[in-house]
Amino acid sequence: MSYTYLDVISQIIGWVYFFAWSFSFYPQVLLNYRKKSVAGFSLEFALLNVSGFFFYSLYSMGGFIYPHLGTGEIKPNDLFFAFHAFSLASIQLSQAYIYERGQQKTFALWAVVLLIVEWITLIVVFLLEGVINIGVMPQAFNTFRVAGYNKAIITFLKYVPQVMAQLKEEEYPRMEYSEHFPDFTGGSLSILQQVLDMVYNGLTEGNWSFFGSGDGFNIVKFMLGVMSIFFDIIFMIQHFILFRGNHNQEQGDTSDPLITRANKFTPLAEDEEDYEDRVLRDSPKDGKKGINNTSGSYKG
User: Which are the contacts of 27, defined by CB distance < 8 A and separation ≥ 6?
Assistant: First the structure.
């Protein structure tokens, strides 16, 4: 019996996850552009994302060209997603330099230190493995696998400051919430593709291990899918449950934060009548009182 249809379904799901996951980058880019501000959008998120997806692009490209590097199976949709994500992450970081940052003035030290450590680690492994060629590096820690691990670490840590920033601000719309639905979809379908591949391998080769055998399992892709689902659930809980009232208050006008700020100083409706009475009572009826009150030095 032929199970080719499972492989076809897997490829379709893979490209659907590519479009869903890729689309998730655009709402934040467009929001930053419309507001001409990245206030509330974690600078650490933007900074880490660029290096993270560079690492993932390196990991995916190496595994796609040389399938036995220990990266697991890299499908064309995986490779295109990594390149596209790196491009959009670079745009987001450039916006952090171009637009107003709000209370965020610079990048947190821990994020800079993390990137320095990861880049040094990757360069050292590359020198030991490729240049010096000492021949003692296990496959689980070759240059491409280390690049993938670096991306997995960044993916986890980049979300934490965004979660904490939104808890501190006690409002959600700072990070565009509409990006989390496609991000959640992309992460779910990414894992589903790996599940279908397991079923296909089980039916055709008798290998029912989800984590595959040998070089078959893409561990980094799996970790990224799990972490995306986990944090997207947290973000959606913040938006729809914890800070739901704050979101509803901003629905009247989200085009300019200054309008929302100004509304905080608008007199309450029930006080407007008293306010108008005071104005009429203090207003001059014949002009003389007004002249005397407008200037202490001019008596008229």
Answer: 176, 178, 179
